[in-house]
Amino acid sequence: MSARGFTSAFAPQLDAYLAFKEKMGFYGSSRISYLKRFDAYCTAHGRVAFDRDTVEGWVTDQLARSGRYRSWMSYIRDVGRWLQVHGHRDAYVLSDRWKAQLVPAHPYLLSRHEIEAFFAAAATLHAESPWRWQAVAFFTLMHSCGLRTGEARLLTPAHVHLRDRNLDVVSSKGNRSRRLPVTGEVTEVLADCGRASTARVGPSRRTFFVSASGNQVTPASVGVIFRRIWDAAGLPRPAGAQQPRPYDFRHHFAYANVERWARQGRDVTAMLPYLARYMGHASIESSYYYIHTSPDFMHAYSDIIAESQSLLPEVGFE
Fold it and tell me: What number of CA atoms fall less than 13 Å from residue 251's CA on the CB side?
């Protein structure tokens, strides 16, 4: 019986592959989810050979269902490589011609008015779920600390150190962890949220932010409550243009810091490694994507890249 519930002819290999990845520190649920889809496809179509027809057949089928995010191609490519290394020399490695093209999301640039109106509406949110007292704290972490949505969702009570005014982001993207100092205002917001959750849900909750059933909040629920607050604030949705999303708070955190440093006359190039470290980027190159969205900083973008490459040629935070 497969440990993961796989049913195809590749069940033993898929189980072994995932066990190997976990030993390497990769526990992502996305990888497992897509490999289960591959497994189901193979079962439904009677595929018993990990060859080109099987792999590219599934990829073609998956492409018809997927949106613009196609990083899942790397999962099945990695399985092929792993099989070859472990004695299955005929295993097919997905060709580079199938490599996912980068389709960048265009961020919605939040204005100060929109941010203020959003948090005013979040503070008076009418909801039966814990979002009634959690919304302000959740989106404060994205806006004031630049957290990813998933990082806020996975935060546990043990990761929030109110006395020391810091929090731990554990095993995030790339299996990297970091400790973030937070301001006194953010600490108070988190403290209020924590007290309310303890009073209503109990002290034994597994995550800092919880659903109505006491479980971890889902990605879908974050999007739903964000749109609900946005509408409650009376903020418009641009017709035929990029719609605001929770992740835009993280974008705002990045370029707002860059603009603040520029106004203060600080050396932005020297500050970029700190921004990258705080946001959990593998290197400062990852921060450029956020910098170029700054409407007031675009004119200096090329100069910063040139300066940083000469000043910090090998900086990185692996």
Answer: 20
